[in-house]
Amino acid sequence: MLEPSLINETAELVSQNFSADEIDRIGGMLIKGYSSHNICGEAEHITFSSGKASRILISYMNSKRKTFDLLKLLIELDGSSLSGKPIALKGLEEYLNKLTRTGVVYDFHKRKIHHSRKDVENLVNWGALKEGKYYGFTIISLDIVGNSKLVKAHGLKKMEKVYFHLRQFITNKVYEYDGRIWSFAGDGGIIAFTAKGNEQRAVLCALDIQSSLPVFNLRPEIPIKDKIILRLGLDCGKFRFSMDTGHIVSDAINYAAHLEKSGTEPGQISISSRVKKELNAKMGKYFPNPFEFESERSFTSCL
């Protein structure tokens, strides 16, 4: 069974993409002779809105324990056709994102639905993104300042303990803002955000990481006295997604990485103008300092 809020979300997804007649055809793919009119006892000549037809469909499939069969069918209809009409489901990725957060995940490779919250946060595609499709992302590139000097001063063994605790710290912050760690190599990595409001969530995450870092440095389990200092660079853009995130080619990833490494002061955050324009005035005030980097206008924080 779906959570009550997702029942409404599912009905909305269906109603905004299909007519009442098409909804009946979808029902017929799962249950022979399906008819929304027969189910609610209405005469066939009465016209149903797509909203009413979708609510009847969801309710009926729930009662027959075929809700997840319906979800699987809807997901697989995307990119195919229904009665000769090409289907491109608007709002599918956002819906799948919400579905994943409840522990229901569609595996695009195995074409199966999994009902478990376990490891949902480890899915680099949020359980929603399709291989080879284009999506909008905001990227954070993150790096420890002076990592080589720290390794030289404390030894690799101690620093590996620091890396372990740092990754846990970063992971908790990232998932709080519905981001995903795409790569992490001890002293830094690439973090991605997608779906509605991804730019704002990425910036909030970056600010949270930097503002919480002093507390991280005070933890007794951190085996060095030197403070860990980070710098972060952010850019956003639309690019082709791959489950093999290490091989994604993107100007946004490249610019974020270059901006972080060569354009950002220790302990600060730099964002591209593309990210800045997506922020509200309150958030934008944290990035008052414009500068030119690689022939583009960027902004740095005032932390």
TrEMBL record:
<dbReference type="GO" id="GO:0009190">
    <property type="term" value="P:cyclic nucleotide biosynthetic process"/>
</dbReference>
<dbReference type="GO" id="GO:0035556">
    <property type="term" value="P:intracellular signal transduction"/>
</dbReference>
<dbReference type="GO" id="GO:0004016">
    <property type="term" value="F:adenylate cyclase activity"/>
</dbReference>
<protein>
    <submittedName>
        <fullName>Adenylate/guanylate cyclase domain-containing protein</fullName>
    </submittedName>
</protein>
<dbReference type="InterPro" id="IPR001054">
    <property type="entry name" value="A/G_cyclase"/>
</dbReference>
<feature type="domain" description="Guanylate cyclase">
    <location>
        <begin position="138"/>
        <end position="260"/>
    </location>
</feature>
<dbReference type="InterPro" id="IPR029787">
    <property type="entry name" value="Nucleotide_cyclase"/>
</dbReference>
